Amino acid sequence: DDLKKFATKEELDSFRKAAFKHFATKEDMRRIVEKSEERIIKNNSQVLASNDKMSKKLDIILDELPAKAAQDREQNDRLDVIETHLGFHPVAA
Asked: Which residues contact 2 (CB under 8 A, 6 or more apart)?
């Protein structure tokens, strides 16, 4: 009676053919991993290039900041002199 429950060679072959349509083989998995690695490397390179550009821009801004602050102080001092000469009362900031 138990022998009737075993699958036949034809049934197993049919299942194998159907399974290959739905399950990935080792080669399929290898290709998926390789493509994923390629995308990760490409995206990582893009992120690093973008970070490099941002870092360079930030360096420029940080280098120029002290000069801009000094220029602002000089302009404020000149405005104070002009306002005092014209008799304007200082405005609290």
From this structure: none
Whether the CB-CB separation of 90 and 83 falls below 8 Å is answered with yes
Residue 2 placed within a domain = no
Task: Read off the pTM.
Answer: 0.47
Residue whose tokens read 């801004």:
61
Does 3 reside within a domain? no
- Domain containing 26 equals 9-86
Asked if residue 36 lies in contact with residue 29, where contact means CB atoms within 8 angstroms, the answer is no
Query: In the numeric block, which tokens belong to residue 45?
Result: 């390179």
Q: Which residues of the chain have pLDDT under 70?
A: 1-4, 90-93
